[in-house]
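Task card 7
Instruction: Convert sequence to structure tokens.
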Amino acid sequence: MRSALTTALLVAACTGAYAIMMWMPGKSYRGPIPALTSAESALRDALRRDVGELAGTIGERNLSQYHNLRRAAAFIETSFTEAGLEVHRQGFTAEGNAVANLEAALAGTEHPEEIVVIGAHYDSVDGSPGANDNATGVAAVLALARAFAGARASRTLRFVAFVNEEPPYFQTPVMGSLVYAARCQAGRERVVAMLSLETIGYYADARGSQSYPFPFQFFYPSQGNFIGFVGNLASRGLLHDVTGSFRRHARHPSEGIAMWESIPGVGWSDQWSFWQQGYPGVMVTDTAFYRYPHYHTPGDTPDKVHYDRLALVVAGLEQVVADLAGRLNL
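Output:
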């Protein structure tokens, strides 16, 4: 009797944990990766161009390469402006250097006080040109900003490029997204959703190409061919909305998890900053160092990015943002 009760309790605990952390609405896309449509092909070319500019032409960009960091900021600002969006520079000082988050916003028409933030960091780690980490995320933010530049949406949309995400500034007072999120909270702004686009351009179909912290390898695919959606437990509602929306619209595999921030990698991007301020946030990622062999190395170059797959992911994210923002028309 005791053994049966123990087993039943263990099964119930595991079932409950799965339901809370790993169950996601909808079904992940399965089957061969489809050919791109003409619109997706154009999106792929734009993503390739922007990744190439940030990680190829400009290259390593951080406070150690301050000139390049400023060049990257200027490129992003110009890209927002050319899309027809007004840019707000949110400046501050780090180690005596002027740095800035760059924001392009579209005011909501029905619920402007409800804010959806789509962000990515534009700095790279010391010694790396940062193509996948994180020129892919920035290129996706720029692509989404262009897609919505002529749209009307119920909620306010903010497209933001954050500075100083990488070490040694990660989770410090001069981390760009932490400065941004703290200012949102100080202004009593109502951020209802934050998407952090973090290292989203590398995919592998071979078995064993994906790793996980124990024991998640028993629950998720061994092929690194999916885009991941990661939230903390407090963001589980948003995580379900985002993952469900992506699965309804996208032609690309996806997985999701709500997990404790202490698990390595779960809080390792800009959504962490919003969690600290009590805002819901989800990281969109190819899982970075759990998959990508060139993570934080000089080898993180534009040729390592899988642009067709990246285009399918960003096309799916456009629909996610539309659902979150209540897009009325394009």
